[in-house]
């Protein structure tokens, strides 16, 4: 009888040991399966994170409660807009979008419309825009020259954007704008109101308003605050303007391709410009400001202007920016149903170790 009990006890112990080993092995395999599954899910998430998924995430963020915070909240964009380049039309779109996309638009108003700031004002401006957290994300715009934040020891670099225009077209537009104004504020009296001299006549008479030196504006705006930037025909200024465009500007478009520039902004800055392309096309913002009584110059006048050193330098800068814009556009946008949009993500991560 005692032997039977011993055998029964031994058998029970063996059964318990087998069950315990089976349980440990099963748990180990489940743990390994869970790890592999998690790694696979992570890879799928990365691979599938394309443009459309990103926009969905951005849309959820934009529509979240005001109290929520995210890294997108620190976005700081500066548009140091060049006069008479369709900047008002572009800002009309931004003001339409700011409430829906939950960002702030702030105009930079300088005394006497000065395009450069004193050293102390430069410091004040940089301190204000980098530390004013209640107004971020933010888009600042105004007719001011490029300003390098790092010169003052600030680590945050703003995202610069801009638009430029064919130099002679910009000069002619500004010439007639000073005399007749535009349809944006038609009742405002302009500086040259009553002066009916045409641009052709001005060039023939060699008056100051049509002097090619007045085209020296787009290069200085990109060159910056250095005194040589504002010296007409300065070769160093042209080189510096090109360097700043490449190193500090996210995207620079051209007035002649404004719709494409808006599409680029939506693709590369969706946090602010999500929905900008359709707003531009459907919201009647493409011709927000049109100069009155503008007369195209004669071929003779055009040739005289093109013989000047200032035109050749400004045009060189324009062509430099245009080439860069076309290259960026080709790499970034595709056309769908007649509308340019982001071509989607063309990279993914793989061989991620350790799992």
Topology record:
Layout: H1 2-47, H2 51-62, E1 76-79, H3 87-101, E2 104-107, H4 119-131, E3 138-141, E4 159-164, H5 167-180, H6 199-205, H7 218-223, H8 235-248, E5 249-254, H9 258-268, H10 270-273, H11 276-282, H12 299-306, H13 309-332, E6 333-336, E7 339-342
Parallel strand pairs: 1-3, 1-4, 2-3, 4-5
Antiparallel strand pairs: 6-7
Short description:
The chain has helices at 2-47, 51-62, 87-101, 119-131, 167-180, 199-205, 218-223, 235-248, 258-268, 270-273, 276-282, 299-306, 309-332; strands at residues 76-79, 104-107, 138-141, 159-164, 249-254, 333-336, 339-342. The chain is of the alpha/beta class.
Query: Radius of gyration in whole Å, from Cα?
Result: 30 Å
Q: Per DSSP, what share of the residues sits in E-state strands of 2 or more residues?
A: 5-15%
CATH superfamily descriptor of the largest domain: P-loop containing nucleotide triphosphate hydrolases
Helix percent band: 40-55%
DSSP helical segment count: 13
Tally of structural domains: 2
Cα shape: elongated
At CATH level 3, the topology of the largest domain is: Rossmann fold
Question: CATH class of the largest domain, please?
Answer: Alpha Beta
Q: Describe the sheet with the most strands.
A: 5 strands, parallel
Please tally the β strands and state the result. Answer: 7
Which structural category do the helix and sheet elements fall into?
A: alpha/beta
Family: Belongs to the sulfotransferase 3 family.
Keywords: Disulfide bond, Glycoprotein, Golgi apparatus, Membrane, Signal-anchor, Transferase, Transmembrane, Transmembrane helix
Subcellular location: Golgi apparatus membrane
InterPro entries: Heparan_SO4_2-O-STrfase, P-loop_NTPase, Sulfotransferase
